[in-house]
Write a structure and sequence with these properties.
Oligomer: single chain
Strand content: under 5%
Number of helices: 11
Largest sheet: none
Order of helices and strands: HHHHHHHHHHH
Radius of gyration: 18 Å
Helix content: over 70%
Shape: globular
Structural class: mainly alpha
Length: 263
């Protein structure tokens, strides 16, 4: 299926369900791209088209994350200024690599990227617990050393190339160099992830074959799913949903690796 192919009622329903589920998962446990990206592949979109479409569709979620952490972002403008430029640069490099390298290279890598994202999500609770257990000091903030900027650049390149798992990876990197509370590190991660999302979405909108109808459906239902997810969190154990998405990601990643090996 190409980006210009019309969608029938069944495909529209699949996109609506995938968008809602991804939004709910993001609100409860994170990792919604491990639902929306495979859904686009299942509908027949090529891996690159599915990836850029998913990146554009995920953009509203980054905005919502920043709104939710607006109080924790107060006083972190200096951190955003220091890391913003390197984040934008990395996102541009990653987005450009996706469209510059042969599509066959992304096809070869996508299965492993999905597996890596699922593995990152599996370790997310341990990362959060480790960060929460650190000594906190509001006056220390981030240790601005060269290693931080290099690590953040690499993470942003990854986010521009393939966004699934970006938040988990960025949280781990920022946490290594920060002495602030987990909530404030999470807030900074959300703002920097938004930068990656803005750059990638704008770059792909101008340069890539975005499937706009699926992107809008996923984004719209993703917002609705996010609202519903907050309510579902009171009923569905977050741990159960978290590892359900991990298993789904590992399954999809394995299938993609096997398919690429056969083709």
């Amino acid at each position: 299926m190409s980006e210009g192919t019309s969608l029938d009622v069944t495909n529209l329903l699949i996109l609506a369900l995938a968008g809602s589920a991804a939004g709910a998962v993001n609100a409860i446990a994170g990792g919604g791209s491990l639902i929306s990206f495979p859904a686009l592949l299942a509908l027949g979109y090529s891996p690159v088209v599915a990836n850029v479409t998913n990146a554009v569709a995920s953009f509203p979620g980054y905005v919502g994350g920043c709104i939710g952490y607006r109080s924790e972002l107060r006083g972190q403008g200096h951190h955003l200024k220091k890391l913003g430029a390197v984040t934008v640069a990395g996102a541009l490099v990653g987005s450009a690599l996706l469209l510059t390298l042969p599509e066959s290279s992304f096809r070869a890598a996508v299965g492993w990227l999905v597996l890596g994202s699922a593995a990152l999500m599996a370790f997310q609770p341990y990362i959060r617990r480790a960060l929460a257990a650190r000594p906190q000091s509001d006056d220390q903030g981030l240790t601005t050393v060269t290693a931080l900027f290099v690590a953040q650049f690499v993470v942003a390149v990854y986010g521009g190339y393939f966004a699934a798992g970006l938040g988990i990876l960025m949280l781990a990197v920022l946490g290594v160099f920060s002495h602030e509370s987990l909530h404030r590190v999470n807030a900074l991660k959300s703002a920097l992830s938004l930068l990656v999302g803005v750059v990638s979405a704008a770059f792909f909108a101008l340069r890539a074959p975005v499937a706009w109808t699926p992107a809008l459906i996923l984004a719209g239902f993703g917002l609705l799913g996010g609202v519903a997810g907050v309510r579902l969190a009171k009923v569905i154990p977050a741990t159960l949903l978290h590892y359900g998405v991990v298993i789904a990601g590992l399954t999809v990643g394995t299938i993609l690796v096997v398919q690429n090996g056969i083709s």
